[in-house]
Design goal:
The structure is a single chain. By secondary structure, the chain is an all-alpha fold. 71% of the residues lie in helices and 0% in strands. The chain has nine helices and no strands. Helix 6 runs antiparallel to helix 9. Bound molecules: protoporphyrin IX containing FE.
Length: 218
């Protein structure tokens, strides 16, 4: 691809080579970076896989308590490759959480959260929170017994907050109990509000990492 006629055509017009050399092919990183430095990048790869498989599932999924379960069964049994796309999305959600936790553990172990990277850490904590919210909201979507009771227990947690706890529970559920409005709300959080927040946070996370450079191993 690079060096081919299409690349040369674009390079003559947009001067791509200096840009690529600066950012990719000649970017300097510490020589002794170990495999653990890949964990942030792998979390990003998982996010992209989840977005891609999520788009495919969206073509058939119906966010309605009467149709949600049937539409997931339809994807799994009738749609070509549907079962594997659905499985990748489900396993991918768990894998992404594990990878983000491992990335976080590496940062904590090497104390990389210290000056000048305090805000990398803060944006990272927000990314971890949004990743878990993505998993939690997605879990309700198939509308199974497990997902119903999972959402019921999960949404009860803010009820422990003094004074305003009950109001928060009511707000999250869009009513007194888990029902069609909860499903609609979780669906919109899962397919666009949370991914949009995550994309913004990741942009910030990466921009800050580019400014400070990656930390040198101890
Ligand atoms: C969706 C979640 C996340 C993605 C996609 C992501 C991505 C990345 C990438 C690609 C890097 C550079 C390579 C590396 O050091 O691994 C990085 C670095 C960093 N991340 Fe994350 N990250 C995420 C979550 C977090 C979390 C949860 C924390 C901590 C609470 C965190 C804190 C940091 C810090 C402090 C660095 C700088 C590392 C250094 O300079 O060596 N990130 N992140």
């Amino acid at each position: 691809m690079i060096g081919g006629p299409v690349y040369r055509f674009l390079d003559e017009r947009f001067r791509l080579t200096p840009l690529l050399e600066k950012n990719l092919t000649r970017k300097l990183v510490p020589r002794t970076l170990g495999w653990a430095a890949c964990l942030g990048g792998l979390s990003l790869v998982m996010f992209l896989i989840q977005v891609f498989t999520g788009f495919l599932l969206l073509m058939y999924y119906q966010p309605n308590p009467l149709r949600a379960w049937d539409s997931v069964m339809f994807i799994k049994s009738n749609v070509a490759m549907g079962w594997i796309i659905q499985r990748i999305h489900g396993v991918g959600a768990n894998l992404m959480i594990v990878l983000v936790l491992m990335h976080m553990a590496r940062i904590a172990y090497h104390k990389i959260y210290r000056k000048p990277r305090e805000f990398h850490w803060v944006s990272g904590v927000l990314l971890f929170a949004t990743t878990t919210f993505m998993a939690f909201t997605g879990y309700l979507l198939p509308w199974t017994q497990l997902s119903y009771w999972g959402a019921k227990v999960g949404t009860e947690i803010p009820g422990a907050v003094p004074v305003i706890g009950e109001a928060i529970v009511h707000w999250v559920r869009r009513g007194p109990t888990i029902g069609p409005d909860t499903l609609g709300f979780f669906f919109s959080l899962h397919i666009w509000i949370l991914p949009a927040c995550m994309s913004g946070l990741m942009g910030l996370h990466f921009a800050m990492i580019r400014r400070t450079g990656i930390s040198k191993p101890l």
